[in-house]
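Subject: sequence -> structure tokens, single chain

Hey, anyone have a minute? Need the predicted structure for the following. Not urgent.
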Amino acid sequence: MPMTPRACEVCAAPLQRRPHENWADWSHRRFCSHACYARKRPLKARVTLWAYRMRARKHRAWLCQRCGGWPVEIHHRDRRVANNNPANLETLCKVCHAREHPQGRPWPGAERALYA
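Reply:
Had a minute. Here:
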């Protein structure tokens, strides 16, 4: 089956079929590299958990905000993991964070409410 010439959606470079790539994968590929893929994605999709932690530590502290302990974890004050507003994030050591979430659960029925 002849391959029709295709170009990357970002940089317009020709898409070459990789040796390990089958026909179906190649025919659905839209970008020539991971860098072009990252440029095309919206900014919100590129923010990782690590980035949120670094942002919280930058705005808050590298030490626990309650006892001054270390190492710190990120705690969501309203207990909704989807709300990553810096005002909602708090840096807590493992001991203080465990006090906030006894038995690993924020409150009964949290599984339903965390992403509400």
